Amino acid sequence: MMPERKQEAKGRFKLKKYPKTKKYDKNWINENKMGPNPILLMEELCENLDLRPGMKVLDMGCGRGLTSVFLAKEYGVTVFANDLDVNATDNLRRFEEAGVADKVFPINAEAHTLPYANGFFDAAVSIDSYHYYGACEWYFPMIYSHLVKPGGQFGFVSPGYTREFERGYPESLKKFKGPEQGMFTFHSNAWWRKLWEKTGLVEITACYDIDDVHGIWRHEDGSNWAIEYIEADTDNNIALIVMAAIKK
Q1: CA angle 24-227-8, nearest 5°?
Q2: What is the CATH number of the domain that holds 61?
Q3: Domain membership flag for residue 11
Q4: Considering the domain boundaries, does residue 206 fall inside one?
Q5: Which of 82, 113, 126, 191 fits 130 for a cystine, CB–CB 3.0-4.6 Å?
Q6: Across the beta sheet with 78-83, what order do the strands follow?
Q7: To which H or E segment does residue 121 belong?
């Protein structure tokens, strides 16, 4: 049975710990992360999911596979670690070193040409990548939704804004709007909720902004770009959005 959730619950970064994340070597995370600490974000997301041993989980846009290692170790699930840009052989080496190569399978595949059968997965999750391909109106109903069986789960954490803007971005962040930053796909949690709800394919079970987004970006990313980005956000418009859903 799925755990009871509050649909508009707030993240509590300042008030809580991330005990599962603390188990993992900080140097290993820093060497392999490609943005804010993906394990921390996955732990936050998983609080809104019901993952159990033996489930098959798609980890979309897994990067260097940190989240895939986390899912296998913490929940005992079988993970298909899908990424377009990171070499699958390199990820396999990381999975072997982490002792999860029997549970995590590295795949190189583009989001629109995924090699998986319909209904193959019990869950599909994504950390800091879904906005790159999933903001398209037809992607979820025509491609992504088919990957998970009825009653299965979806979830992602993606960067966005606390509200929508007429130009698509707040004025204070104008210089970051180039397509190479992906900010043209940044939206509010309300926008993402509507995008999935209107398909009629899922029940949204969580949709909220994580608290202290500046702290997460500063301390769990720490790159020069991230620090410059959050310092430019003088009106507190940026967000890290959590959304989870169950397929009807």
Answers
A1: 70
A2: 3.40.50.150
A3: no
A4: yes
A5: 126
A6: 104-108, 78-83, 56-60, 121-127, 148-161, 238-247, 202-209
A7: strand 121-127
Structural domain boundaries enclosing 234: 21-247
Tell whether the model's pLDDT for residue 187 goes beyond 80: yes
Rounded-to-integer distance, Cα 161 and Cα 216, Å: 15
Q: Say if CB 159 and CB 186 are below 8 A apart.
A: yes
pLDDT tens, residue by residue, 199-221: 999 999 999 999 989 988 888 77
Distance from the Cα of residue 232 to its chain's centroid: 24
CA-CA distances (angstroms) from residue 237 to 35, 51, 112, 201?
18, 32, 30, 30
- Per the domain annotation, does 50 fall within a domain? yes
How many domains would you assign to the chain?
Answer: 1
Determine, yes or no, domain membership for 155: yes
8 A C-beta contact, residue 80 and residue 34: no
Please measure the distance between the N-terminal and C-terminal CA atoms of the chain and give it in whole angstroms: 15
